[in-house]
Recover the amino acids of this structure.
C-alpha cells in the first residue's frame, strides 16, 4: 500500500507528550519498535515498513546497514545528546542530518555530576552504611571533606560542562576548565580559569569531572599516566562516556591509594559485569548511565526530539541541534 505520509520509526520508550505531538500531524505515520533491539531486527523492521523518512533513536545503533534499510531517510534524531552509537560519517555521505536533544538533559547531567562530587566528598555511602551497621562510635575515623574552596577541573565546556561550572561556583569552588575548542575569553567570562595544559590542570585539581564527547581524541584520555598526575586525595567523576577513562588504570590507582575516589555513571561495557573490580571498592559510587535521565528530562528530550524531526520535515531544521550541519548546505 502506498502512502504520502512521512513514516517515522519511534522507540517504545519515547515520552507520551512527544508521541502525542507527532500524532497531531495528519501527514505522519508512526511505527513503533522496542527500545532495546538488535541491528539485524531493526534493519528487518525498517525494510518491512517499506519507507522510513525519520528514525528516532534511544540506545539503538545506526550505521550503514540501517541507512540502507531505511529508504527515503531524511533525518535521524537521538533522544539524548550522545551519538557515539551513530555513524555520523555514513549519514553525512548520504546528506542526512543527525540531530540531538540540545540542552534538554544538560541540567540533569550537571546535577548528577555535582551529586557524585558531594556524595564522594561527604562519604555519603560509607557513612550511611556505618549507621546501618552500628558503627556510630567509629564515625570520626572517616571524616568527610568540604567542596568549599576546592579546585575542580571541568573537562569540556559545552552545554553540560558550563552548567556544572555554574553549580560549582555557587558552592564557592575554584573552577578551572580544559576545553581546547572553547576560547579562553569565554571561559574567563563565566568566572572560571582556562587551562591550556590538561596534565597541569589534573595535577592541581581536587576534583576532575568529565563532560566531553567520546571521540578518537578523548578515547582513553584519562589513562594511567594522567591518573598518576592527580593528587592521591583527588576525586574523579565521569558522566560523559565509558572509554574516556581507562578502567583498569583507574582500579589500580584506587586500590593503590593514588586516588581518593570515583563517581561513574558510564562504563566501557554497559551494563558492566557484576564482578567488575570497580564495583567492589568502597570509594567508588556508580549509576546505570542515568545522569541525563530524570522524570523531567525524559519529557524535555522527547519533545525536543519530536521538534527536531518536524523541523526537518517542514524544511526549517533547527541548526543548533544538528551534529553534521554541512549536510544542510
Amino acid at each position: 500500500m502506498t502512502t504520502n505520509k512521512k513514516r517515522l520509526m519511534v522507540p517504545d520508550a519515547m515520552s507520551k507528550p512527544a508521541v502525542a505531538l507527532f500524532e497531531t500531524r495528519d501527514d505522519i505515520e508512526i511505527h513503533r519498535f522496542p527500545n532495546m533491539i538488535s541491528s539485524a531486527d531493526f534493519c528487518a523492521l525498517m525494510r518491512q515498513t517499506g519507507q522510513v523518512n525519520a528514525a528516532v533513536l534511544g540506545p539503538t545503533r545506526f550505521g550503514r546497514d540501517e541507512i540502507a534499510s531505511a529508504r527515503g531517510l531524511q533525518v535521524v534524531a537521538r533522544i539524548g545528546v550522545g551519538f557515539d552509537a551513530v555513524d555520523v560519517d555514513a549519514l553525512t555521505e548520504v546528506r542526512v542530518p543527525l540531530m540531538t536533544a540540545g540542552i534538554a538533559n544538560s541540567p540533569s547531567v550537571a546535577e548528577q555530576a555535582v551529586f557524585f562530587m558531594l556524595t564522594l566528598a561527604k562519604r555519603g555511602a560509607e557513612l550511611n552504611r556505618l549507621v546501618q551497621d552500628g558503627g556510630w562510635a567509629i564515625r570520626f575515623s572517616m571524616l568527610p571533606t568540604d567542596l568549599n574552596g576546592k579546585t575542580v577541573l571541568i573537562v569540556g565546556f559545552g552545554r553540560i560542562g558550563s552548567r556544572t561550572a555554574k553549580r560549582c561556583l555557587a558552592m564557592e569552588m575554584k573552577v578551572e576548565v580544559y576545553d581546547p575548542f572553547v576560547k579562553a575569553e569565554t571561559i574567563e567570562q563565566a568566572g572560571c580559569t582556562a587551562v591550556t595544559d590538561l596534565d597541569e590542570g589534573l595535577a592541581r585539581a581536587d576534583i576532575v569531572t568529565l563532560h566531553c564527547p567520546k571521540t578518537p581524541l578523548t578515547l582513553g584520555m584519562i589513562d594511567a599516566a594522567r591518573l598518576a598526575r592527580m593528587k592521591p586525595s583527588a576525586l574523579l567523576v565521569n558522566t560523559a562516556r565509558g572509554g574516556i577513562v581507562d578502567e583498569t588504570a583507574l582500579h589500580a590507582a584506587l586500590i593503590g591509594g593514588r586516588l581518593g575516589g570515583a563517581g561513574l555513571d558510564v562504563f566501557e561495557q554497559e551494563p558492566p559485569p557484576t564482578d567488575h573490580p570497580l564495583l567492589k571498592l568502597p570509594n567508588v559510587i556508580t549509576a546505570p548511565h542515568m545522569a541525563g535521565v530524570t522524570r523531567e528530562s525524559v519529557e524535555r528530550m522527547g519533545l525536543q526530539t519530536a521538534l527536531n524531526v518536524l523541523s526537518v520535515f517542514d524544511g526549517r531544521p533547527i541548526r543548533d541541534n544538528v551534529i553534521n550541519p554541512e549536510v544542510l548546505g
